[in-house]
Amino acid sequence: MNESKHLDELGQIMLASECYVIKDGKVLMFKRSDTASKFPGFWIGPGGHIDHDEDALLAAVREIDEEAGVKVDLDDIKLKGIALHHHMDRKEVWVSFVFLATIKKNQKEKKEDLEGNAKWIPLEELLVMDNVFPPAKYYFDHVLNDKPGILYTNIQWKNSQLVKSLNQRVDKNG
After folding, report:
1. Could you give the CA distance from residue 93 to residue 82 in angstroms, rounded to a whole number?
2. Is the residue at 2 inside a domain?
3. Number of domains in the chain
4. For residue range 23-46, what is the model confidence (pLDDT) as tens digits?
5. Of 17, 13, 20, 5, nearest to 137 (Cα)?
6. Predicted local distance difference test score (pLDDT) of residue 34
7. Beta carbons of 11 and 90 less than 8 angstroms apart
8. 161: domain range?
9. What pLDDT digit, counting tens, does each position of 124-160 carry?
């Protein structure tokens, strides 16, 4: 018999925002430092923990500015997914609010950050890169192509590799 568990029984709950900013066919990505404590060396959209005094949207805007030095207006960002990522090897369950943003004018990314480096990457190049964080790649199609609705996922990972997708659905009214 398969007994259902609450998420907090699987590991520490980690709330995070991540955002993919698009401008002129390029996506703003952030390469985590090779010495980062969480998921070192991977490319991912700017993002991170949600602070106690902010919501997921404000956290996304703050993280884009902190990690990449790019400013995003609240009118130019929208929720595209809520992803549950159970990292079995880390005993962590990440609840990631995934956003898509567009910016109206070119902005230069900051190259140096203690946690890694930001770079505008052409979409075609990004889709074939090897060192993109696998959980992020899982919802690239929905987010980067701005498909209608909000994608909901619940996925198990071990050593940043897919173990099993428990479910995935799109709320087209979102």
Report:
1. 13
2. no
3. 1
4. 999 999 999 888 887 788 899 999
5. 20
6. 85
7. yes
8. 7-171
9. 999 999 899 888 888 899 999 999 999 999 999 998 8
Return the pLDDT at 15.
95
Radius of gyration of the chain (CA): 16
What would the two tokens of residue 49 be?
Answer: 């923990």
Question: Residue 64: which H helix or E strand, with range?
Answer: helix 56-68
DSSP 8-state assignment for residue 105: S
* DSSP symbol at 135: H
Neighbours of 112 (CB within 10 A): 8
104, pLDDT greater than 90: no
Say whether pLDDT at 1 is over 60.
no
Q: DSSP states of 12-57 as a string?
A: EEEEEEEEEEEETTEEEEEEEPTT-SSSTT-EE-SEEEPPTT--HH
Q: Is residue 140 helix, strand or coil?
A: helix
| Dist. CA 82–CA 20, nearest whole Å | 14
Answer whether 121's CB lies under 8 Å from 26's CB. Answer: yes
Residue 75 lies in a domain: yes
As a whole number, mean pLDDT of residues 103-127 equals: 81
> Which residues fall within 8 angstroms of residue 2, CB to CB, at 6 or more apart?
none
Can you tell me the distance from the alpha carbon of 30 to that of 131, in angstroms, rounded to the nearest whole number? 11
Would you say residue 1 lies in a domain? no
